[in-house]
Automatic annotation (TrEMBL):
Residues 5-185 form the Bacterial bifunctional deaminase-reductase C-terminal domain. GO terms for biological process: riboflavin biosynthetic process. GO terms for molecular function: 5-amino-6-(5-phosphoribosylamino)uracil reductase activity. InterPro entries: DHFR-like_dom_sf, RibDG_C, Riboflavin_Biosynth_HTPR. This is Dihydrofolate reductase. PANTHER family: 2,5-DIAMINO-6-RIBOSYLAMINO-4(3H)-PYRIMIDINONE 5'-PHOSPHATE REDUCTASE (PTHR38011:SF11), DIHYDROFOLATE REDUCTASE FAMILY PROTEIN (AFU_ORTHOLOGUE AFUA_8G06820) (PTHR38011). SUPFAM superfamilies: Dihydrofolate reductase-like. It comes from the Bacteria. Pfam families: RibD_C (PF01872). Gene3D superfamilies: Dihydrofolate Reductase, subunit A.
Length: 192
């Protein structure tokens, strides 16, 4: 069975962006060592146009062949004309307000949990939950793996990692990878 993996960038205090969802400031901490690691470990999590820019667009998907993102996450690239940000993956956008998306993107406006459970039963690589906080909250009990990229900054407020209600959900630590830039990538598996 496929896993749902929430791979996300966050501040030390658990925010994935400003209150309006902007997370562009995280890029200032990215160095060559971190990029090379991401290219090797998670090449499919880089948008298609970024993969082309770095010359890694021919690298095969290692872990994921599908991504789920909220409308806010999807909308980030729209002003630049990026309507299929992860064209190398099967893309699902969760939204009740969007009326149409390009053919290579599937709109999920109904029961998100049921959709994810069906995707998990299908053959393939794992499913990447790309963001954001509201979608993560809806899927919190379906998340099988957390890959938390913690950046060395403290924001104080903003968009949380997940806007889920309080409940203890236990995970086991799998790995920790740190970089001189201060970025720490921690991977956890859901205890079931």
């Amino acid at each position: 069975m496929r896993k749902l993996s929430y791979l996300i960038a966050t501040s030390i205090d658990g925010f994935i962006g400003s209150a309006d969802g902007d997370g562009e400031f995280f890029t200032k901490y990215v160095d060559d060592a971190y990029l090379e690691w991401m290219f090797a470990e998670f090449p499919e999590t880089l948008p298609t146009h970024v993969r082309r820019h770095f010359g890694i667009d021919d690298r095969p998907n290692r872990r994921y062949d599908a991504t789920i993102m909220g409308r806010g996450t999807y909308a980030v690239g729209l002003p630049q004309g990026v309507t299929s940000p992860y064209g190398h993956l099967k893309q699902y956008v969760v939204s009740r307000s969007l009326q149409e998306v390009p053919p290579e993107v599937e709109l999920v406006a109904g029961d998100l949990v049921a959709e994810v459970r069906e995707l998990k039963r299908q053959d393939g690589l794992d499913i990447w939950l790309c963001g954001g906080a509201d979608v993560a909250a809806q899927l919190v009990d379906e998340i099988d793996e957390l890959v938390i990229k913690t950046y060395p900054c403290f924001l104080g407020s903003g968009m949380p990692l997940a806007a889920a209600g309080f409940e203890i959900r236990e995970f086991a630590l799998d790995s920790v990878t740190s970089f001189k830039s201060g970025i720490v990538v921690t991977t956890y598996t859901r205890k079931r």
